[in-house]
Amino acid sequence: MALNSLDVQNKTFNPQFRGFSKHEVDEFLDIVVRDYDEFAQTIKDQERELKALRERVKYFDDMKDSLNKSIVVAQDAADNLREQAKSEADTLKINSEKESAEIIANAGQKSSLIIEAAKKEAGNILNAASDDARKLVRDTDDLKRKIRLYHQRMTSIIENQLASIQSDDWAEIFRPTQDYSINPEEKLQMIIEEHLENAESTLVKTQAIQPLTDEEIEQANEKAEEPEVEAEPIESSENIEETEVPTEAKEEVAEVTETVADESPEHSEIDIPKADDSEIFPELEAKAPAETTELVEKDNQETIDLSELKN
C-alpha cells in the first residue's frame, strides 16, 4: 500500500521501556509529513510535466515520422523525376542527334542540288552571254556594213547633186541677160533661126537613131525606175524632136512674139517650139531625192535597231 502523509501523521507507536521521546518523535514526524507533502507535490508536478513532455515528444515523433515519410515521398518523387528527366533527356538527346543527322544530310543534299543548279544556271548564263556577244558582234558588223553602204550611197548622191549643181545649165541660167533693145522683128528672127538650127541638128541626130518599139521603150523605162539606175527614161523618136528651151528664152520669145504680133500680124502664125519644164532641166527630176529619202528612212530604222541592241 502506498504511504502518504496522513498515514505518517496518524501513525502511533506503542510505548515501551526506554523508548524515544514522544515530543521529538512528533516533531520529526511533522517534518517528515511536511517534506513528504512537498515531495509528493513535486512528484505530481513533475509527473504532469513529464506527461506534457511525453505528449510533446510524441507529437514531435509523429511529426518526425510525417516528415520522414514526406522526405521519403519527396525523395522518391525526386528520384522518379530525376529518372524521368534523365530518360527524357536521353530520349531528347537521341532524337536531337537523329534530327541533326537528318538535317545535315538534307542540307548536304540541298547544297549539292543548289550548287548543281547554280553551275547549270551559270553555264546557261555564260552560253547566253556568249551567244549575245556573238550576235552583238554580227549585228555590229552588219550595222557597220550598212553604215558603210549608206556612206557610199550618200557620197554618190552628193557627188551626183554636186555635179548637177556644177553643170553648164546653171551657168546658162545665171548668165546676165542680154540687151534686147534691137528691133523686135530682128530679135524674133534671130531666135527663130537659132531654134531652127537646133531643131535641124536634133532632127539629123534623130534620123540616125533607129526607132524603138513600144516594148523596148517600156523595158527601158522599167530599168530606169530601178533605184540603182540614175539614167532618164528613153524617149521615143517622136519626143526626141522636141527642143529643150530655157524658161527665160520662152519668156523672151513670148514678149517678142506679142510685140511682133502687134506690129506685124503676118508673123503671128509662126509656130514656136514648146518645151515642158521637165525637159528644161532633167537633172532636177533625177531619182536622187527619192533615194535620199529611202536612205534616211533606212538610217533611222538602223539607228532604232542599234539602240535596241545596246539595250
UniProtKB/TrEMBL annotation:
Pfam families membership: DivIVA
Span list, region Disordered: 219-311
Repeat found in the keyword field: no
Domain of life (superkingdom): Bacteria
InterPro entries from the UniProt entry: DivIVA_domain, DivIVA_fam
Name under which the protein is recorded: Cell division protein DivIVA
Listed Basic and acidic residues bias regions: 264-277, 295-311
Organism: Lactococcus lactis subsp. cremoris
Coiled coil region boundaries: 36-102
Protein family: Belongs to the DivIVA family.
Chief localization: cytoplasm
One GO process term, biological-process aspect: cell division
Keyword line: Cell cycle, Cell division, Coiled coil, Cytoplasm
Compartments it resides in: Cytoplasm
An example Gene Ontology CC term for this record: cytoplasm
Claim: Glycoprotein is one of the keywords in the record: no
Acidic residues composition bias: residue spans: 227-245
